[in-house]
Amino acid sequence: MLANLTRWVRILVPQPKHSGPFGARCALVGEALRGSLRWLCVFIAHLPAGYLAALAVERATSNTAAPTSASRALRRALLVGAVAPDADLLWWWWVDHGAVHHHRYATHLPAVWLASLLLATLWRASAQTAVLRGALLGLSLGALVHVLLDTVAGDIAWLWPVDDRFLSLVRVPATGGHWVLSFVTHWTFLLELSLVGVAALLLFARRRRPGTKEGEGARSS
Ligand SMILES: [Zn+2]
User: 82: CA distance to ligand 1 center in Å?
Assistant: First the structure.
């Protein structure tokens, strides 16, 4: 069955050849396809990971303070931050034409988000700027969740600016069939699907529970 699947994937998504000007162009298209698939897969995991992090923040702070506009802004910005770093794919494709790994951009540098997290933590916000501070805090936390998830099977320069080498937890080996299959048959893909499943279950449970934002939304829709 896997052999048949491999044959069909090879027909539908040909592997790029890497010789000559045409080959170089094919290689770039192949990279774009690979990046797009990766983006699609991690996008579906990044947003649920952000949702789980937002729930964790809500749970951690629910005993100490009532929800405020700042805490709501924090949780919403956390969801945005969980996917925002991948916006650099637009620059990677349209401006740099795939010349550099998009994880080299500032949006994927943990040092940038740790600095903004520190800034938000030290910010003595007034009543007028509390929402802005909450949003910066959430955006930084969400982006850190994003780069953490990217580190599982991707490359992230965690030691930048001291060392710009990429670090990753695991390498997805080529299975010999096709890069699409190498990716979707690796356990890291299962991890991403699990995040999607857990987040969907929790969202469903909250929508059924009265007294939550999701529950109110479910009843009014
Ligand atoms: Zn990313």
Answer: 9
